[in-house]
Amino acid sequence: MAADQTMQILVVDDYRTMIRIIRNLLKQIGYEHVDEATDGSEALVKMRDKRYGLVISDWNMEPMTGYELLKEVRADPALSPTPFIMVTAESKTENVIAAKKAGVNNYIVKPFNAQTLKNKIDAVFAA
Amino acid sequence: MSSVEIDKLDRLVAFLRKKRGEHASIAEVTALAEVMADSMHDFYRMLHASLHTELKDIAEYIARMRGEIAALRPNELHRVHFPAASSELAVVVQMTEAATNSIMERAEAIMSVEISDLAAYKAFVNARLVAVIETCSFQDITGQRIAKMVEMLGQIEQRIARFAMATRAVDAEGYRSDQEAAAAGRKHQLMLNGPVATGDGNAQHHVDFLLGEGKPTVSQSEIDKLFA
């Protein structure tokens, strides 16, 4: 299944600058409908209010991390099917394995480029 | 106690034994007290000499520690260096963020502009690219600020290393407060490692492999390491 370019994407990062970068990269690869949240708890509120086709989240945020958000999403039957990509500087093996066990769909290590973002989104929707 | 004094004491004890049950005179009690006092005086003099040496050693150790602590200049670290480092870092974060946003604004303007006239388009793009180049000068200032901090950290490191060696300090285990323990626990539990040193983390192709995608490829730098 190819990714729907009109889907709503939720970008979660505690740095506004990073959100802006991801928003611009998404625009470059054809995704215009982007919402934002600055931590996991804000993202959860938004996700319970609106259906998103994809969540792109940082790991290290306060008060709720991206890892905690992922586990909350997977534990909630209403949110559980939402594809989830982690975009983070946390590149240790233990992080990648933990995210995989928690149900992440893909994992991008910062810094990254538009092509990597596109490849990972395509891979998530091709699976 | 001298042998003369021991002899005196022996004779007095023998005398008192002999007089057991009888009243001793004031002169006899006084003589006994004098001998006792003399012998105790010697005892205290010996004790005093030994204590004096111990106390002198302790005093010298404390004076040396005070000297080492003074050389560490903890008040200066606390009042000057750490606040300065903190404010320098805050400025670096602000300047970096401002520069990034400024560069992005120009890039966004170029990406969204709709000008059909080629010369006008070229002038528009050129003006924004010049602004981007100008903004990149932030690196000079942030670089200087960071260099100052690196120098300061080097000095602090030297002072602490000298202090640790001079005092033969052994690091305490555990945490200084419940707050510190809770923060460390959260970091560990949620794997909040932050960006790792070059070579410590996984590159994207390794992450892909861990997720079951792709093949275990190695980068050129990793191949170079094998031949180093």
Can you describe what's shown?
The complex is a heterodimer of chains A (127) and B (228). By secondary structure, chain A is α/β, with parallel strands linked by helices. Helices cover 44% and strands 17% of the residues of chain A. Chain A contains five helices and five strands; from the N terminus they run βαβαβαβαβα. Chain A has helices at 16-28, 40-49, 66-75, 93-102, 114-126; strands at 9-12, 34-37, 54-57, 84-88, 106-109. Chain A has a five-stranded parallel sheet, with helices on both faces. In chain A, helix 3 links the parallel strand 3 (54-57) and strand 4. In chain A, helix 2 runs parallel beside helix 3. Chain A is globular. Chain B has 228 residues and is mostly helical. In chain B, 78% of the residues lie in helices and 0% in strands. Chain B is built from eight helices and no strands. The interface between A and B is medium-sized, with 30 and 23 residues.
Summarize the model shown:
The complex is a heterodimer of chains A (127) and B (228). With 127 residues, chain A is of the alpha/beta class.
**Chain-averaged pLDDT of chain B:** 84
**What does the average pLDDT of chain A come to?**
94
Largest interface: A-B, 30 and 23 residues
**Total strands of chain B:** 0
How does the overall form of chain B come out from the CA principal axes?
rod-shaped
Provide a count of the helices of chain B.
8
Range of helix content of chain A? 40-55%
Q: Name the helix and strand elements of chain A from N-terminus to C-terminus, one letter apiece.
A: EHEHEHEHEH
Major sheet of chain B, described briefly?
A: none
